[in-house]
Design goal:
Shape: globular
Number of helices: 12
Order of helices and strands: HEHEHEHHEHEHHEHHHEH
Structural class: alpha/beta
CATH superfamily: Divalent-metal-dependent TIM barrel enzymes
CATH architecture: Alpha-Beta Barrel
Number of strands: 7
Strand order of the largest sheet: 1-2-3-4-5-6-7
Distance between the termini: 32 Å
Length: 287
């Protein structure tokens, strides 16, 4: 059935065949956790290891220690399997999709649904502790992924997060699709990039369809329902102006990688074909 999960070897083969040059790690255990085996799999396909997503329930101080262990373990694999001359980044995030109120209201979060000052302090301390441990143990830098259905989703929440953390400890992963959904429109992305330009260290290119987002709000779909209905559509089929996004990255002299992130759930089509269309779209924009 098209859209069903595929093994990591097939995924890497299709990634290379469709014109990509790197990959993130994916869920722990999806790809080999032996650094030699992972490095060989990537080298055979001339692919670069760019990052790994680590979700932690950052508002719960009792889980910070476990978060440090998880992040450091992941960062060590990135360091040992990756390219020392072009190191990967650890992508830290809140444990998105675990709090019912945030799942139910993704894309339409109000200030009343946000964190208190004390909760922000706990989250910021957790982020700082984890990022410093990763850097101390592995030398890798950490970026934070603002993400829908988590506690750092809206532009105001991103601003609050950045105000409570230090740029030397943590950079921002700017995700165009999650920003658009969290802000209420794909047209907000350019404003967000300009607003947070000083903290952007890593970029996910993801589209968002404003029409589906609007329907999610009117019908009352939760986060996962919205994804299943295609709110994060293929590049160029939504409302994010990627040509302008690339112009901003050029103007800010961004020299990092950009990662295409596409949700293809079972029944939504072929991941390979979707990846090929996304790559062709980016080629049409000159990258």
């Amino acid at each position: 059935m098209a859209g069903e999960p595929v093994g990591y070897r097939q995924m890497l083969d299709e990634l290379r065949e469709t014109g990509y040059e790197g990959t993130e790690l994916g869920d722990w255990g999806y790809m080999p956790t032996d650094p030699d085996v992972l490095r060989d799999a990537l080298t055979q396909r001339s692919l670069s290891l760019r990052g790994a997503f680590v979700p932690v329930a950052l508002c719960n101080a009792s889980l910070h220690t476990a978060g440090v262990a998880q992040a450091v373990r992941t960062a060590k694999l990135l360091r040992e399997a990756g390219d020392a001359a072009d190191p990967a980044v650890l992508v830290l995030a809140d444990a998105n999709g675990t709090v019912p109120a945030r799942i139910m209201n993704a894309g339409r979060i109000t200030p009343a649904m946000g964190l208190t000052d004390d909760e922000w302090a706990v989250l910021a301390q957790g982020v700082t502790t984890i990022a410093r441990a990763v850097r101390s143990e592995t030398g890798l830098r950490t970026v934070f992924h603002h993400h829908c259905a988590g506690f750092v989703e809206t532009p105001a929440e991103i601003a609050a997060f950045l105000a409570r953390t230090d740029a030397d400890d943590i950079g921002l992963l700017f995700d165009t699709g999650h920003y658009a959904f969290g802000a209420g429109s794909g047209h907000a992305v350019l404003e967000g990039m300009a607003r947070f330009v000083d903290r952007i260290r890593y970029v996910h290119l993801k589209d968002c369809h404003d029409g589906v987002a609007s329907q999610a709000q009117s019908v009352g779909w939760n986060y996962f329902d919205a994804i299943g209905h295609g709110v994060f559509c293929e590049l160029g089929k939504g409302n994010v102006d990627f040509a302008a996004v690339l112009e901003i990255l050029h103007a800010m002299d961004y020299r990092g990688w950009v990662v295409v992130e596409q949700d293809v759930l079972p029944g939504m089509g072929s991941p390979r074909e979707s990846a090929a269309r996304n790559r062709a779209y980016l080629r049409s924009l000159g990258i």
